Amino acid sequence: MTRNRRPLLALATLALSASAALPGAAFAGPTLDAVKKRGELVCGSNPGIAGFGLPDDKGQWKGFDIEFCRAIASAIFNDPSKVRFTPLSAKDRFTALQSGEIDVLSRNTTWTQSREVGQGFEFGAVTYYDGQGFMVRKKLNVNSALELSGASVCVQQGTTTELNLADFFRTHNMKYESVVFATADEGLKAYDTGRCDSFTTDMSQLYGERTKLGNPEDHVILPEVISKEPLGPVVRQGDDQWFNLVKWTHYAMLISEELAVTKANVDEKLKDPNPEIKRLLGVEGDFGAGLGLGKDWAYRIIKNVGNYGEVFDRNVGAGSKLKIQRGLNALWTNKGLQYAPPIR
Amino acid sequence: MAGFVRTAPEPTLPPPAASTGFVAALRQRLFSGPLASVFTVLGVVFLAWAIPPLARFLVIDAVWTAPDGAACRAPGAGACWAYIWRKAGYFTYGSYPVDQRWRVDIVFIVGAFLIAWLLIRRAPWRGIAAGLFFIAYPVMTVLLLRGSTVFGLAVVPTDMWGGVLVTLIMALSGIVFSLPFGVALALGRRSALPIVRFFSIGFIEIMRGVPMITVLFMANLMLPLFVPESWAPDRLLRPLIGVALFASAYMAEVVRGGLQAIPKGQFEGAMALGLTYPQRMRLIILPQALAIVIPGIVNSFIALFKDTTLVAIVGIFDFLRAVDTARLDPEWAGPTITATGYVFAALFYFVFCFGMSRYSLAVERELAKARNR
What we know:
The complex is a heterodimer. In chain A, 36% of the residues lie in helices and 16% in strands. Chain A has helices spanning 6-14, 16-21, 31-38, 64-77, 93-98, 113-118, 160-171, 184-192, 203-210, 240-258, 266-269, 275-281, 297-304, 308-315; strands at 41-45, 54-55, 61-62, 83-87, 104-105, 121-123, 128-130, 132-137, 151-156, 176-181, 198-202, 219-221, 229-231, 234-236. In chain A, α7 (160-171) links the parallel β9 and β10 (176-181). The termini of chain A are far apart. By secondary structure, chain B is an all-alpha fold. Among the domains of chain B are: 97-155; 176-372, MetI-like (MetI-like fold, Orthogonal Bundle). Helices cover 70% and strands 0% of the residues of chain B. Chain B is globular, with a radius of gyration of 28 Å. At the A-B interface, α1, β2, β4 and α5 of A face α4, α9 and α14 of B.
């Protein structure tokens, strides 16, 4: 099979750059139709980050990014299990999306200008506001990263993490000593053995790393976030309906948290007189049609997966081992950044 | 003059006490000279330094049963075998659905039986075993693991396969494909037909000239870019092809080494007998050439077995990747989990590689009998 494709491949190697500039070329027809025809959503997922995407003992994928795909599948099929996960490495992920191998990439991918403009992708929404943070030992009695002057910090080599660290200390005119390691694991080990006062990486991972320590309760994560890492689902440019569907899946989950509609009470809420809830759950008006879905699209999401707060809580928040604070990911009504446009 | 002539032989004296028994063996093997004595002492010191902490970590302080990671996180706890036990299903089958895992078990059992049949050199009807293993078994494996609605088996897409299952599939198919491909390429490289020769040389040199990671990335990333979505080979098949082609190139060079060791007289003799080219190769040249390079072939197999771990970088959850992923589970994550996982993985790979190495030694000895007769 490969044999008769080899000449094609050789030619294609030369044409790689040309092809990369036309990411939509390999792909024809609206994504939603393809998904419906296939009978399942294909979701590019993380190969392993605690709380965000990790197989459990039975090999079932669990996590925050995973549940977002289950929410999309629920909106389309009313069945959160109709999704196939393709675990993708950081290098693999964009090609898989470009080639049409996956429908949506939900894999802690940072929304940056160059990815959106240069590579032909669109970021549906920010499902998780991440950023670099610091972990310190509780007994140091440090409450803010601004008190870290003179500290030694364990950091992974050659990542933007190292760069952000330098910038942060320079802007605040503080002294520090960076202790650089090739992998996050080594850095964490050095921190654990007392080689450094602090360990730094992205917040979402910091909480996961903390669970690896002997006594996670002895360590605190400082509130300061020193870099912007907005994470969200990615789709190909050129299919606006699909883009809207992905975006509004997130918004529907936010709105239902705002309106206190949960997985448990969604059926009762169908009778709620609140017009916003009526519109959200499809009791009044038909807001699913434009997305190519039924008018109960948001009801399906909440019934099968839950609202944003529930998903956050059970995967990474207080209901999980990670215990990540809502922080920037709180609703705008709670001083966070999560804000959804209204359905009307 | 009457000389003294012994009438009976003098009784044999027992060997000096210093040259027999345990003490002598020790002396001779461990303290035969100053240098040997120094090394012996150093060796004993090293073992005394290394073994107690290892034994403490792996056995004495190890946690054998625990409901979750709490017991393993306790200060002073050693290897967390409870965690390996809990994750054993995931390590073996990956994400393969729990209620369908009997299918994998059948594949494992049939495979083990056929391999044992093939490898035991005195077993009867090994020809049948070969036929079953090389033709019927792969078909059965694909049908059973992938499933098909025709047989009433739920379809399990390959991205749910993982763990030991994938590692063995990778290694076995690599081994099974690379040997015939390698032989063909080695013969092609020595062929008198220029096109065949150039193709073989080009293939071997290109495959050997790039790192395996490159081959895997090529297979994984570029194939789907240039063919329509529905044509793109399965995500598991892509690295499988990559690994098989890569291994074939190395195998070809090993086999070529064997071919070069065969004296020219063998070729000429075979020709003089009026044998055709396939007959010459099959009956005279290859049996001798392959026998010479058994150590090299097995070396390639062992390297291939370990190289399968590289497929993890293209998102395939082989055994090592499964171990690497499972250690992140917040339920279990702790200071000893990573070490436990990697020790377990090392044991797994060691058992397989050591087994291959021992078997090849036995085969070599068997074949050497014929040569030394």
